[in-house]
Write a sequence for this structure.
């Protein structure tokens, strides 16, 4: 897989038409079809496929003076770039030029139509409607009702959001004590902004989290299982009000507890969700999105 930012800068430098964020997303969604491991993932929005990673890359470029962003318009600052910094290999360059030759002169509407023929999923939040798009909408709407859990470990922000969309999640409840991550896209402010693009509400429940001090002290000499045992003994019994609040959300619509760990068995979210179900039976059922198995 090529560096996302190399691919993006190469596209901006070689496109002959003015570029907007919407158009960049459409072109990269089409170009990614030819990549064995696509540089970008996309989520469905009102304008079609959209990459949160791409948005973050553009903002980083703007901060570094490599591009100028004005509304949706993107302008490459040629004098601030060394062409060698975004040069592609011969095969990748040929694929980019081939893609631009095929799609570069098309309108945004035509680009979206080409994408939806291949990936109707990206049309579920647009005004477009055909059998394939409607079937996907209906499939999402018919997702099992209940409480879901999801860890972002190993996922891009766009892959993470797609997991939520396909489970028909309307609210996420973050059970980290501090909604901070070494990956900036999962810090509360940026995560909340990303979720808002697909009309998913973010709620923090830091009182359910594992205390940072205990995490550091216990993991220094003991196992993760011992850390979870400490949390279950000291913190879990205090979370009754949070469980009640969670149950109220689940009664309204599908809700997901989110944290870092991919494996729910290695994360306190699974123990809190089980406690919440016992405390509030109206929750009904618990599912981990990535393992796609009912946990209750």
């Amino acid at each position: 897989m090529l560096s996302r930012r190399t691919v993006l800068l190469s596209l901006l430098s070689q496109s002959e038409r003015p570029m907007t964020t919407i158009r960049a997303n459409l072109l990269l969604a089409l170009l990614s079809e030819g990549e064995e491991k696509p540089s970008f993932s996309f989520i469905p929005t009102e304008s079609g496929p959209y990459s949160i990673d791409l948005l973050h890359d553009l903002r980083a470029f703007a901060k570094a003076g490599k591009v100028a962003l004005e509304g949706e318009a993107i302008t490459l600052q040629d004098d601030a770039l060394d062409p060698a910094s975004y040069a592609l290999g011969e095969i990748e360059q040929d694929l980019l030029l081939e893609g631009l030759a095929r799609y570069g002169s098309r309108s945004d509407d035509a680009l979206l139509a080409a994408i939806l023929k291949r990936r109707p999923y990206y049309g579920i939040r647009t005004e477009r409607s055909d059998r394939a798009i409607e079937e996907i909408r209906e499939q999402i709407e018919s997702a099992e009702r209940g409480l879901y859990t999801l860890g972002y470990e190993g996922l891009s922000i766009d892959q993470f959001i797609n997991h939520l969309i396909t489970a028909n999640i309307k609210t996420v409840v973050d059970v980290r004590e501090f909604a901070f991550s070494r990956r900036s896209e999962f810090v509360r402010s940026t995560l909340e902004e990303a979720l808002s693009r697909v009309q998913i509400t973010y709620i923090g429940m830091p009182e359910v989290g594992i205390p940072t001090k205990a995490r550091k002290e216990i993991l220094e000499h003991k196992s993760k299982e011992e850390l979870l045992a400490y949390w279950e003994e000291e913190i879990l019994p205090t979370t009754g009000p949070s469980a009640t609040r969670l149950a109220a959300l689940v009664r309204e619509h599908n809700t997901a507890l989110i944290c870092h760990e991919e494996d729910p068995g290695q994360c306190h979210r699974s123990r809190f969700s089980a406690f919440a179900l016992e405390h509030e039976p109206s929750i009904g059922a618990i599912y981990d999105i990535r393992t796609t198995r009912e946990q209750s």
Summary: The mean pLDDT is 92. The CA atoms of residues 247 and 281 lie 8 Å apart. Residues 90-103 form the longest helix (14 residues). DSSP finds twelve helices and eleven strands in the chain.
